[in-house]
Amino acid sequence: MFTPVRRRVPRVAVAGTFLLFGLGIGGCQSDDSRRVVRVASTTSLYDTGLLDELVDAFSAERPEYAVQIIAVGTGQALSLGERRDADLVIVHAPEREEQFVADGYGLRRTTLMRNDFVIAGPEADPARISEAEDSSDALRRIIAAEARFASRGDDSGTHIRERFLWDAAGGRPEADWYMEVGQGMGATLMFAAERRAYALTDRATLTVLQANGLDLVELHSRGEYFDNLYSLIPVTDVDQATGATAFEAWMLSEAAAAIIRTFGEQRYGSPLFTLSGE
Fold it and tell me: Where are the domains of the chain?
């Protein structure tokens, strides 16, 4: 069975390069006879570089496993889990995750870390959303101004939250200025920058791409709906259950916590993620 897998690219190139390729992932042996653990993860987590660092550290401690990252939106990651084409998922759509476990596809859901969502856009801020009281006010200002808005449009965790915010504001727009990209977070932000559009994003991806020259700024993150939680869910009835459990345990260990606590601090001035409960 073939599913899209994101190729690792230099982190500086992430802003403009998103390569997906087909790779057989049905088996549980890598070319060097290590046991393959298939992890379906959100593109936003991958794009920051944190996932690479965590996987490398895990591999150094547990060399008998080869972690294979499948970087897709949350909706597709959960679909991979439902088909048993992933052994563990790392996603950020709490209600969908709870249903996934309730339906018997996941063994348990453990929240690992958090950051927050923000609405980014051109510095000129044509809809003046930086003055908005909350997310509904911000989105209504975008509608009133008929300002361009770039949506991921891919059933990712960010897209799920965006749809929720539009519904809370009175409904999703059907207009030429509302553009569904159908891509990951980084590609959507690049699209938005090129078209001087607004977009909902996680703060970490925005921070990383701004450091690489992205011409968008944070304009709004006030209100109760911007918290962004990332959770681990090992999938039920998979061939590599032992490896998935080993990776889950390591991700919840102090070794992983030490990486998460400081990741991004040296380059960006503050960590990109906060551990759950801290």
Answer: 2-114+229-275, 116-220
